[in-house]
User: What shape does this take?
Amino acid sequence: MSDSQIIVQADKTVVKITGLNIKGLNTTQLEDILTEKLVSMVRIIGVTGTSIEMDIYGLDDPCIIKDEIGIIKAVSLAEGITASEVAQISFAQKIIEIDYKNIPPKLDNACMKERWL
Amino acid sequence: MIENALIIPTGDEIKEGIVQDTDSPMIMQQLINLNPRCQVVRSIPINDDENAILDAIISNIESNLDIIILIGGSGGGHRYSSTLGKDFTHSALETILEQKYVGEIYGKNGHLWCKLLCGKKDSTLIINVPGPFKESKAAMEAFVLAYQKSPNNLKSINEAMIASVIQQYPVGIVK
Assistant: This one.
């Protein structure tokens, strides 16, 4: 049981870029590069050896997709990232809002994979 | 006073060197600022796996540590995105901490943004911080201030850390 539960509202779009080669990435540097380019706050939320996933605040998905080439060029400026010829925005979707009353209760007795939320 | 500290980074991307671990040096600096005589050890990064996290805590709990700080694994992935992994640091801490205070931040899309715990196992204080550097730094700064005011007040430490994380985002609080 949580002692405090806070629900926040944000205008953000989840974006995934694939086709990258990543090793030794400084995520803060990448966030700063993208924030400067997009003039919007960016948070890197997932990284693999070939992809990054991020939250972009205050920009809708059509604006982001329209600037795909510019965003990939900006990403490739970060230390530790090389964009391949097939680099692309493979996913861009504004977050779906739900009624906070629908946030499911925690499953205390569930297995590890079910208990994460 | 914190004299012996252990930092445990979590996450495959940290362990494999895909992402630089910039959080651990920052946390080390904060702990040294809090007490210049503090001995700080950074462990080998561990996978984001509940059992691995529990093993890491249990194997270190009897080492006369004043604090264990876990980095990363504080979110829940996107509820509507199958591509993001689920995090297990907070769920591991839920199961092992005896006295604890828990704070959760949810987005309006229903996913768990951040869950921070502050608790004790035996006499060791255990906290977790988010992985993203700016949130991690804010949470640690809040921890240091709250700890200096009242080192045994788990509630005030946890609330200060949660509030500091929220302040890093352009969000409105719904509830």
Remarks:
- Confidence is low (pLDDT under 50) at residues 112-117 of chain A.
- Strands of chain A lie at 4-9, 12-22, 42-47, 51-57, 81-94.
